[in-house]
Specification:
Elements: H1 2-11, E1 13-16, H2 17-38, H3 47-56, H4 65-84, H5 91-112, H6 120-141, H7 150-162, H8 166-189, H9 199-222, E2 223-226
Parallel strand pairs: 1-2
């Protein structure tokens, strides 16, 4: 039995966690830009920030999706800090992740904006590719020690603070995001106007979780995720 376990470990290829983080950031930003371009509705998680972008960009030409993410996730971090009761040092890494993600998102929004979307079948393909690409990125982010964006951080911190199940907390957060997005759409664009959310949002909500689960299992079957960079010793838990 022990020999079989050693053989299985040897069969796995070492994969740097830092590379998993980089791939995750790039693919999530690229996939989100594709979904926005397809215009079937973005994911529930990014929908509120996307609506801020749609509204403010009408009057502020230089206001971007990335800037909207900065503002919304900064607000979410303040709310999370208030709920937790303190600001932990590791939150700074989440801020860095948001800055990187926002810059990548704006870059890929420019790239995706060049894709012609006159034909329905093109939009369907763009949406499908975008949805899968986001799932690929999220699954990679599950296998790194580096802090994710504030969305994931908020769910994890609140669940730990109150002893909630992380999965159930994530579901509640997603539902709150959807309700908030619908309310913002009505407020910004008029009653019964669904901007930034649509059939694609629902499809993504139903398929994204299962895709991430399958991909994560596949990654862990093929790779042994290892930490390559150790700058200094981890601080005590109470200082984090």
């Amino acid at each position: 039995m022990e020999t079989e376990q050693k053989t299985e470990l040897k069969a796995k290829k070492a994969f740097p966690m830092e590379a998993a983080y980089a791939i995750g950031q790039v693919t999530i930003a690229f996939g989100t830009a594709l979904m926005a371009r397809a215009d079937f509705g973005v994911s529930m998680v990014v929908a509120p920030a996307y609506l801020v972008y749609l509204k403010l960009s009408e009057s502020i030409s230089w206001f971007s999706f990335g800037l909207a993410e900065y503002l919304f996730q900064a607000l979410l971090l303040l709310v999370t800090t208030a709920v937790i009761g303190k600001f932990k040092k590791r939150y700074l890494f989440a801020v860095a992740s948001v800055i990187i993600y926002g810059a990548l998102l704006d870059l890929f929004m420019l790239v995706a904006g060049r894709i012609p979307t006159d034909e329905l079948w093109v939009r369907i393909i763009i949406f499908a590719v975008g949805s899968v690409t986001v799932a690929v990125g999220v699954a990679f982010m599950f296998n790194t020690y580096l802090s994710p964006e504030v969305y994931e951080l908020a769910v994890k911190e609140i669940a730990e603070k109150f002893g909630f199940d992380v999965g159930k907390t994530k579901t509640v957060y997603d539902v709150i995001s959807l309700v908030l997005a619908v309310a913002m759409s009505f407020l910004f664009f008029g009653w019964w106007k669904f901007e930034g959310i649509g059939y694609g949002t629902l499809i993504n909500a139903l398929t994204n979780g299962p895709m991430i689960t399958v991909l994560n299992k596949l990654y862990r079957k093929k790779f042994e995720f290892v930490r390559k960079i150790n700058l200094k010793k981890e601080p005590p838990e109470e200082e984090k």
